[in-house]
């Protein structure tokens, strides 16, 4: 009897065709699965490899990218959370209604949930989708769920950053978020500028014109030009947002100022995307219409150009400086009080002699003053203490210190009722010390700052380790919602029919693309 043995060829396991790092690069630059597969095959072949040894299919590439994305997203979140060494977190949230990727033809509200630390770290936790009707209770529950899904010490959340809508800032609502979803179409007033932009001579613009009776404006204009020149000179490429720089340059150009020596000359850029909800986009359009008003006589009615030019003057001398300095928590109390005083002063001057000001100027000043009155958060007893760490309030620190010590030594307990802000007409005579109260001491505890330096003379504060630590903490305290807005922009860019249909994959894609900044528009298929 003969034994016959048959040797079967050994089947070797095929190798992955797309390295993990290449998966992240493909997500970063929005490359489709098919393109990634073809590129991988081309590189392997060019390197003399046998393509039969690799898994080269669109479906395999897609699965590879999905698993790599989940793993990378988890790693990014883990190490970013580990890098937050500060004692206090700031919780940011913002929302937007965008097209649902899971349900064709329907919209979904997405809320960004972000943590930042006083050490400058920023962590995107989620861009969570809201199912069903969006209410304050539902959105608060979603945010809490996101926090509970991460290894966080929620007791370290000491600051909330949000848009001041009625629902968000309601006294009894707790941690609540409400989307700003009412985005109308491009304003027809500004769309006319876009439609006629190519016909304009962009080197032929008209500066602000001050008539003889309006000489009072020259002081405002001179002060604004001086501020803008200093701000532009001190700005760095690493810390500067392009729209902020454009705002500063357009304002400076409109007022007749020149850029500091060594800085590039000002170029008026073509109108960009107009966002109904973004104040700065409207302001940039306003300045551009005002600068080219002499060429737009056939596009706008004379009264429209007059109103837009008056608005541009108002924005230039009152709002630009306030906007460019609003990111400093330490300067916020003095900035808000100074802006209110300037508006009150202008309102009184216009009421006395309207001819000293541009047409309809009062219709800008009064609503601005009324709106600011409802948002004087940084003049509350608790937050006004931030001004102790400002380099711009040296003359106020001594009087603020005396007020702080007076309340610290008082035996009566602080009032529990809501603090009443003085009427706007009373604010003109107020100083920062007038807003100090019992609750002013609580700011130090919330931010983990040792307040013992307050008992020292002001001249010795800069030598105090506790003061220097507090100054560093406050310098990194976020007071604007840029982090959440950037994340919403990311969600909007990735919201195409080629994005993942799985919520888990979509969240991983958000984390990977946020962790690896993208430089190209999203077009790829990453399913």
Characterization of the model:
The chain is α/β, with parallel strands linked by helices and 527 residues long. Among the domains are: 200-324, no CATH class; 337-410 and 422-480, no CATH class. Helix content is 44%, strand content 8%. It is built from 17 helices and 6 strands. The chain has helices at residues 20-28, 33-46, 58-83, 136-148, 188-196, 216-234, 242-254, 279-291, 302-324, 332-352, 362-373, 394-409, 424-427, 442-447, 465-475, 482-493, 503-515, and strands at residues 15-16, 54-55, 89-99, 107-117, 122-130, 157-161. The protein has a 4-stranded mixed β-sheet, sandwiched between helices. The N and C termini lie far apart (58 Å). 33% of the residues are buried.
